[in-house]
Amino acid sequence: MGNLRYNLQNGFVDMAQKGRVLQEFEHFKAIAPKRFLGKLFRKGIVGASNKINDLSGGAIQRAYEADADPNLIDENGVQHMSQKQISKAKTIALVCVIVLMPVILLLAPLFMPLIMFGILAMVAFYFLSRSPEYKNYNYQQMIAQPALQILDNQLFMTFQPSSLDLTDEQVSYDQALVEAHLVRPFGKRCETYIHSSCTYDWMNHANPDAFEFMGYHMYYTYTDSDGNSRTETYFDGTIYKFRMGYSIGGEINIMSTETKKGILGGEHEKNKFKKIKNKEVAVIDTENHEFAENFDTIATYDQEAYMFLTPVMIETLLELRKRFFFCICMKGDVMTVTIERIGYGSSQKDVFSSRKPTFAPDSAEDELNSMLSGYSNAIRSILEIHDKLLPGRVSSPLSPS
Fold it and tell me: How many CB atoms lie within 10 A of CB 242?
C-alpha cells in the first residue's frame, strides 16, 4: 500500500503543515476584500430559514443537528459543520431563495434604479477595497499547493506536459492528444485552458499509485461569415494518467462510439473521438456485440489488446460507458484516460483549482477543512478508476516474464 492510500484510508494529515497553512490562510483572510452583499443576503436567508424552521415545529433544526460530527469539535469546544450539514444548509438556502423569489420579482421594478445604483456602488467599492498586497498575493504558492501537501508531500498542482509519454516530446500537447486518438482531430490552431491539475509522485516509475490529473479545455474561436463569434470545442473534460506496472510493445486505443441517424434514417456507429483514417488499421473484434456497439479498439499488436480486454474488463468498460464518453490510450507503461465534460466521481475538472478567491473566507479553518475534504474525495475517485482499469496490475498477464 502506498503512502497516499494509507493517509487517505486512515485520515492522516500532517498537522504541522496544516498549522502553517492555516496561519497563512488567516493572513490571506485579513488582506482579501470582505463580502458585503453576501452578508446582507445571508441575513435574509437566515431569517427565512428560521421562519421555515418555526413553521415545521423545529424539524429542520433537529435534522441539521443530527448530522453533526463529534470529530469536528476543536480544542476550543466549537462545533464545525460536517459535509452533510454543509449540503443540508445549501439545500435550505436554495429553498429560501425560491420562497423569496416572488417577493423579489414583485418589488424589483419599483426599486430598479436604486438596485442598479447599489450594484455599481458595490462593484466600485470592491475594486477600491483590493489592496496591493491582495492583488500581488500568490495564492497557489502560499495556500493551494501547501494545502494539498497536508495529505502527502508528493502531491503537486503543476502538470508537466513534457511527461506525456504518448508521443515525441517535441509535439505539442494538443497534437499529442489527437495522435494518441484521445480527442477529435482539429485542423486549426487551438486555444487551451487548464481548469486544475494534480500530480502524485509521477516520475517514480516504481510507485504503482503514481498518477497525473488535469481538467483540460481545448477549443477554437473564429468569426463566421455573418461576423458572429463562434467557438468550436474539441475537448472539455478530464485527463488521467496512470503507471500500469507493466509495459507493452505497441499502443492500444479504446474509444467510445455514439449512435448517429443516417441519411435514410438508419442508425450507424460513429467514433466519438478521432476518425480512423488509416484503412490498414482494423477495429479489433472482441466477439462481444454490446462492446462493439459502444467502443472502437485499435492496437499496434492485436494480441496485446486481447490480453487487456478480458471478459471482466469488457464488463467494466461497458459499465463506465453508461455514465460518460471516454477514451483510453495505453503505451509503454502509461495508461492515459480522457473523460468528456465531467470527471469520475469527485475528481471533477476544477477540483484542484488554485484560483485566488475573490473574497475573504468567513472562517479560514472551515475553508481549509473544506479544501482538504474536496482534495481527499477527488484523489479517492482517481485511485478508484485506476483500480477499475488496472486490476491486479502487478500480476497482469501483460507483465514481462
Answer: 25
Terminal-to-terminal C-alpha distance of the chain:
23
How far is Cα 213 from Cα 339, in angstroms, rounded to an integer?
11
Q: Distance between CA atoms of 203 and 159, rounded to whole angstroms? A: 12
Task: Return the C-alpha cell found at 361.
Answer: 473566507
DSSP annotation of 280: T
For 118, the grid coordinates are 447599489
Question: Does residue 201 surpass a pLDDT of 80?
Answer: yes
Query: Quick one: three-class SS letters along 145-188?
Result: HHHHCCCCCCEECCCCHHHCCCCCCCCCHHHHHHHCCCCCCCCC
Q: List C-alpha distances in Å: 368 to 29, 178, 254, 290.
A: 12, 38, 39, 45
The x, y and z cell numbers of residue 144, run together, are 493551494
Total-model pTM: 0.75
The whole-angstrom distance between residue 60's C-alpha and the CA centroid of its chain comes to 32
User: Which residue, chain included where needed, has cell 492515459?
Assistant: 336
pLDDT per residue as tens digits for the range 256-298:
988 776 666 676 777 777 776 666 667 888 889 999 889 999 9
Q: Which residues contact 270 (CB under 8 A, 6 or more apart)?
A: 257, 258, 259, 260
Grid cell digits, residue 44: 435574509
Which residues, 6+ apart, have CB-to-CB distance to 159 below 8 Å? 194, 197, 198, 199, 212, 214
Burial of 389 (0-12, 13-18, 19+ CB in 10 A): buried
Amino acid occupying residue 224: D
pLDDT tier at 42 (50, 70, 90 boundaries)? low
Please state the three-class secondary structure of 92-144 as a single string: HHHHHHHHHHHHHHHHHHHHHHHHHHHHHHHHHHHHHHCCHHHHCCCHHHHHH
Distance CA 12, CA 332 (A): 34
Is the distance from CB of 221 to CB of 189 less than 8 angstroms?
A: no
